[in-house]
Each structure stands twice: as C-alpha cells, then as structure tokens.
Amino acid sequence: MLSSKKNNPSPQPGEVTSIRAQVRQSQRVSIDIDGEFAIGVSLDTLAHEGIFVGQQLDQTRIDRLVASDNYDRAKQSALRLLEIRPRSQRELIDRLRQKSFDSTTISAVCQRLSEAGLINDEAFATYLIEQRMRTASRGSTAIQRDLYKHGISKNAISALSQQHDIGAADADHALLYARKLSNRLRGLDKITYTRRLSGVLLRRGYPMSAVRAAVQCCWAEQSNTHDADCDRDE
User: N or C: the chain end with fewer CB closer than 10 Å?
Assistant: First the structure.
C-alpha cells in the first residue's frame, strides 16, 4: 500500500531531507530520506507522527510511520464507503481487503469506527430491511439472505425478522411486483405465463404461498376472470 519506487522497496533509515506537497493529492506529501524519495503519507499522518526536515528516522520509526499511514488510508477508504450508504462490518472488511490492506490495519480501523458509532450492524440491518420493504422488490427470504450475506448472524436475523415482521407484507408486495411484470407476459398461455412469473417472484425471495396467490390473481385480472382472490390493495 506504499507509494514508493520500483518493486516497492521498504524506506531505509536516514535523515529526512525534504517534505514536498504532492501535486495530484493535496492531502498527501512525499518524504525524501537522504535526498531520495522514501514514502508518501497523509498530512494527518505527518502531524501525528511529528515528522520534520532534519529528523533522523531509524527502522523502528519508519515502520511505525508506514503502519500509521496505512491505518489512515484504510480509515479514509472506509469513511468514503460509509458516506455513500451504511455498511456492515463484514462488508467494510471485505472492501478493505480488496484494497490490499492488512488484517491488523483493518481490525484497528473497524474498532475505531465501531467506537465512534459509524459501524453498527444492528443499525445497518434495520436500514437494509426498511429499504428492501419500502421498494417492495424483495420478499422476506431474499431480505434474510441479504442480511446473512452482509455478515449478520442467524440469531440476529431471526430477532430482526420478528421485530420488523418482514414476512407480513410478502403477499401484498408479491402481488404489487407481479402486477408490474404481468403486462410484459401478455399473450402467453397460462402454463408459460405461470412458470415465468412464478420464477421471477421466487427469485425475488417471495414464499411459494405468496407467489401462487399473486400469479393466480394476475392471470385472473389479465384474463378478465374471477377465479382468484384479487381484493388486496393496489
């Protein structure tokens, strides 16, 4: 994760001879040791580590500087992700690993952000549930699957499912989503219509009972028959 020379050599001990602002990254500087570029660090890292021109850096101090800058870079990456939308701890860990940050750095960042209340799996799970239920595009099975994929424990998923009663709206949401798709399937025979619409709804995580009722209702509406209960709210 260092900005360094060819083959990423580790900075060597010596005297800090220059600290130069980086042109493309205004919040970072380049540190020269013994007249040659050694490492790029953030302004926060520079201030935190107290680096100045004329200072002698031994290997221990350099290692600490590298670790401190890695931490700062990982933290800034995590904060940028959190600015877009809430994230679970598992998701942040996976994204930081993709950026090649080491496990020790990632753990330190996650601990700090958790202490600051910026990582909260319960709050994230509530956000995801409310978002999925609001759009009515995912059934309860899919919502639970999404929670598990984001690192929420099975016990927590069970408790949250009861708390938010996420299966209660399955029938209404399945019918609402089926009606959006029904016109695209107009002209198909009943068997093909049922197979295709059922497949979409099942993949969206709606239970079979809700899927069956929604498909029967939509077919009845499209066929102008009355062989299904279609009295649910539009």
Answer: C
